[in-house]
Design a protein that fits this description.
heterodimer; A: 369 residues; six-stranded mixed beta sheet; five-stranded mixed barrel; 8 helices; elongated; B: mainly alpha; 21 helices
Chain lengths: 369, 447
């Protein structure tokens, strides 16, 4: 997906100046302004305690904002109870009603809306077909596997055609393989049905796989909202750079700034050129961020011209099947990772002195952590 | 280790289709692996069995004290009680010859001279050993006034009547001996087992012809008592459910700290003697009691209400005593219901009342069932509370059981009433078991 092809749809949900505190002293969500566009798949990503789940619960109506207003389709919903919001929700532990069959579970949102019987039956059948579980309609939730229960929860949240579907870490309880399969299924459902989905997770790879946009939460504040590739390539601060993907950090001090690039003297010795992203000016401390796959290892003695060439010592190599990792000691960072093609690690010996090099545009000067 | 060895053996068998040599503990050598097939396998199986047996014996040894205790204090007395409800050997013991002589009697006419002679000889023997009162008491249960017949006969019978004159002599002493009923009563009470007590417990009796008929109205009280017992128990159960459900809900919904405090209040009655709690209700409810005085002082009533020694007092006191037995099962079933269900119901569009009725309530049904059954069955056997705070018309079946056991020493009837109560309780428990089995409410949900 290229940056230019996305035409911003009108906002379906608008968080305006939202604050939330539980104890009256500590803000769990600090001044949140967030627009969710119609039809998009947006993920609220962050570590636990970052405020992402609280944000979702305020949108669902289970928590009331301490300050600010939430608009759903331009209607303020702060004082609308959950059952009148027309928002479908998928819970972490599925919350399928154990005393009802699968078909009854899926029919529940229709029957509380007094949908006529024939239509409700048809829609339940269609929903069961969608999740490929027509034969299990009369089972109870306890008789299903985790993945099947998750599909039922999904069907139940979609069957009444809500304006918005919320998902609270719905795949957290599944094993890795099933999780990856379900990620693709949910993504596919989103694309075919054109629904708006707000998804909460702490798993960055899940967020990268599924989302149109990701809002990275930390400490009650949205750090950055952007498309997955933009988050990866252009993180606005150290937290985002660190939270999304693998990342090497080098501490240093900014010497000079020249438009988009700056010279940084490393704390462990040496000087590199980096892209200026989030530094206050010359003399400021900074954390440099370099992705492991954007670094090359040059055997000792090979001459190479480049602005960023640092001496390194091989600590360890790790073989991972489809690729290999070299762990190096670079300028005081003893866990400096470099991603290598499989097999390339065999040439590196423990304790060997080498050089690492990377392009200035792949090295980001960010705020000091 | 044994298990893994067994598994190894099995795997070997299934893979190679031939016997697999397994040596215990030591590394396998070439010698032991070739010729040791049969020798190594048998000891392994035997050792496995021996190891299992030791474990079973250990497990049994742990429960033996309780088993023995229960056998002596629970199973034994219950079996004894059930036996007493049909046991009928008193008359047979006191009047052995008469019972033997009547065995062949068809009951259509008066028995023959032999039976009269046997009776006379038995009465004289019983008078000598002083056991006549035992038989008199038993026979008097079946025929009012039999005690007088027997004791007057014993008093007036001087010696063994002459051969052939027994019938006339006894008839002269007491004309009752000329009536068929007198003799059928002795024959029916001849034992060794009888349905007399069990029939009496159900307000039934046998007439002269031996057919089962309703007891005379002045003796037919037990059906009423059973009905009253079930009615009071049902009422108390319903009251407990109505009062206990909201409390259990609150307990399950509160944060742990406050819920624990509240739980202490729920359990407090358990730490007080039943007698004390019942007497406290007397203090509260009597005509010059706290409740009446307060109401009078507030001017709500002009004269004391009758709150005790009636059905009201019994229901209030029993409900108070039994409430924890309702709250605890309800609480544990509610505690298991994840709050996520109610949130899910709300997010799917169910208003709070609908969510409660359709999602919450059905999941508490096992708790409601367990609590109600517990309270109902406990209430069925209640004795002290109705005896202390109830009037004459509020006494439940246990009162009569106690009455027959301790005061009139009619153990047969007491046992029969107990047996009927036991049977009703067991039936109820079975019905409940069937209902619960058919539901599968929790369905193994892991939330």
């Amino acid at each position: 997906m290229e940056a230019g092809t996305v035409t911003p749809a009108p906002a379906l949900v608008r968080f305006s100046g939202i604050q939330k505190t539980y104890d009256g002293e500590h803000l769990v969500v600090k001044n949140l302004d967030l627009d969710i566009r119609k039809g998009e798949f947006i993920t609220l990503l962050g570590p636990s305690g970052s405020g992402k789940t609280t944000t979702l619960m305020m949108l669902a109506g289970f928590e009331v904002p301490t300050q600010g207003e939430i608009y759903l389709a331009d209607r303020p919903i702060k004082n609308v109870p959950p059952h009148k919001r027309d928002i479908g929700m998928v819970f972490q532990n599925y919350a399928l009603f154990p005393h009802l069959t699968i078909a009854e579970n899926i029919a529940f949102p229709l029957s509380v809306r007094n949908t006529n019987k024939a239509e409700a039956q048809e829609r339940v059948r269609a929903a069961l077909r969608m999740i490929k579980m027509e034969t299990l309609a009369q089972r109870r939730p306890g008789q299903l596997s985790g993945g099947q229960q998750q599909r039922v929860a999904l069907a139940r949240a979609l069957v009444f055609n809500p304006q918005l579907v919320l998902m609270d870490e719905p795949l957290g309880a599944l094993d890795k393989r099933l999780r990856e399969q379900m990620q693709l299924e949910i993504k596919q459902l989103h694309e075919t049905m054109g629904i708006t989905i707000v998804y909460v997770t702490h798993d960055q790879s899940e967020a990268l796989t599924m989302s149109d946009r990701i809002a990275v939460f930390n400490d009650g504040i949205v750090q950055q909202i952007d498309r997955p590739d933009a988050l990866y390539e252009h993180p606005v601060n150290s937290f985002v750079a660190h939270f999304i993907g693998e990342n090497n950090v080098l501490a240093g001090t900014v010497e000079t700034i020249d438009k988009d690039y700056c010279r940084v003297a490393l704390a462990g010795g040496g000087t590199v050129t980096a892209r200026t992203v989030n530094v206050s000016g010359a003399g400021a401390s900074t954390s440099l961020s370099v992705r492991p796959e954007r670094i090359a290892i040059i055997p000792d003695g090979t001459s190479s011209d480049g602005p960023n060439r640092l001496p390194a010592r091989v600590q360890n190599t790790i073989y991972l099947g489809d690729h290999a990792l070299a762990v190096l000691d670079v300028s005081g960072n003893a866990e400096f990772m470099v991603k290598l093609p499989p097999g390339a690690h065999a040439n590196l010996k423990h304790g060997e002195s080498v050089f690492v090099t990377f392009r200035p545009e792949d090295c980001l000067a960010l705020d000091h952590v | 280790m044994l298990r893994s060895l067994q598994k190894a053996t099995r795997d070997c068998h299934s893979q190679n289709g031939e016997k697999c040599p397994v040596t215990m503990g030591l590394p396998m050598t070439a010698a032991s692996s070739t010729g040791a097939d049969a020798r190594t396998e048998v000891p392994l199986k035997r050792r496995l069995r021996r190891a299992e047996r030791t474990r079973q014996i250990k497990a049994l040894a742990l429960v033996v004290p309780l088993l023995v205790f229960l056998l002596f204090t629970f199973a034994g007395p219950i079996a004894g009680m059930l036996w007493r409800s049909v046991d009928d050997r008193e008359v047979r013991r006191v009047l052995p010859q008469t019972v033997a002589a009547l065995a062949a009697w068809d009951g259509k006419d008066l028995p023959d001279e032999k039976a009269y002679a046997a009776l006379a000889s038995d009465i004289l023997a019983a008078r000598a050993s002083g056991t006549i009162a035992i038989a008199a008491k038993r026979l008097n249960y079946a025929l009012n006034g039999f005690r007088t017949i027997l004791t007057s006969t014993a008093r007036n019978l001087k010696a063994v009547p002459e051969r052939g004159a027994a019938k006339e002599t006894l008839g002269k002493i007491n004309p009752a001996w000329r009536e068929r009923t007198t003799w059928t009563t002795i024959k029916d009470a001849g034992g060794p087992v009888t349905g007399f007590y069990l029939l009496a417990a159900l307000d039934l009796t046998r007439n002269v012809e031996g057919a089962i008929v309703a007891s005379p109205p002045d003796q037919a009280i037990y059906r009423d008592v059973f009905a009253r017992t079930f009615l009071i128990s049902l009422g108390v159960t319903a009251l407990c459910l109505m009062l206990g459900f909201p409390v259990a809900y609150l307990l399950a919904a509160l944060p742990p700290g406050r819920s624990n405090l509240l739980m202490i209040f729920v359990l407090l009655p358990f730490w007080t003697s039943l007698l004390v709690r019942t007497c406290a209700w007397i203090v509260l409810l009597q005509s010059k009691g706290v409740v009446n005085d307060s109401l009078l002082w507030l001017g709500i009533i002009d004269e004391p209400l009758r709150l005790i020694y009636n059905r009201f007092g019994v229901c209030v006191a029993m409900t108070h005593v039994l409430l924890p037995f309702m709250i605890l099962p309800l609480y544990s079933s509610m505690k298991a219901i994840s709050p996520a269900y109610m949130r899910a119901a709300a997010s799917l569009g169910a208003p709070p009342v609908a969510a409660f009725l359709r999602i919450y309530l059905p999941q508490t049904l096992p708790g409601i069932g367990a609590g109600s059954l517990l309270v109902f069955i406990l209430a069925l056997g209640y004795y002290i509370t109705p005896a202390l705070v109830g009037g004459a018309a509020d006494q439940m079946i246990s009162y009569f059981i106690a009455l027959y056991t301790t005061e009139t020493a009619n153990w047969g009837l007491a046992s029969a009433l107990g047996a009927v109560l036991l049977l009703a309780t067991i039936l109820l428990a079975l019905v409940y078991g069937k209902l619960v089995q058919g539901q599968q409410v929790t369905g193994g949900m892991k939330n």
